[in-house]
Amino acid sequence: MKKQLYLISGMGADERMFRYLQFPPEYEVHYLPWLKPQPNEPFTDYAARMAAGITTEGPLTLLGLSFGGMISLEIARQRPVEKVILISTIKNTRERPAYFNMIRRLGLYRLTNRWLFKQRTFVVKFYMTAKTAEEDALLKDYLRNSDFDFMYWAIRTVIFWENEELHSAVVHIHGSKDHTFPLKYVKPDYTINGGGHFMIMNQADEINRILSREL
Description:
The chain is built from nine helices and six strands; from the N terminus they run ββαβαβαααααββαα. The chain is α/β, with parallel strands linked by helices. The longest helix is centred in the middle third of the chain and has 13 residues.
């Protein structure tokens, strides 16, 4: 029986983010698409609905990118998982950047509205650190098609996320130049030199070398 690997992308993104990753042949690879959240849906409930998309049998590994990493950790609390691989994310409350806490304390997340949502291009480009024309095209597609209700729910979820428990087998890969989750707050197992929040695409070779050791 093949091992099962499920991929969960970053906030509102899709499986194209994983196009340059390579996995050992003994793995059967699946992608878990984002679901539309219910208004004020608790993170645990949403993760349970995501986990319902895991329909295969066999040893299970989760690979989560950014917000998908947080979802992966929550799923791993709800069902048996052999390993969780995290890329460009945080794994507990202590790793949450200081500016997240400021947004939380000042209630700035409440200022989000549909007009501001449409004006977010500069901010998103800064935090994603796209380096190539392909990445820039993906980012423009993401900005054009991302859903306001999902993003508003997801941003609030990240801001208020509290997590102290950690799965026993977690591998954390992070970039030294990640603007979204700065390295100074994060304690990864592997650091990709010069890697930004888009390193899963523009530094995939280095990530693949790590995956070949960890999978």
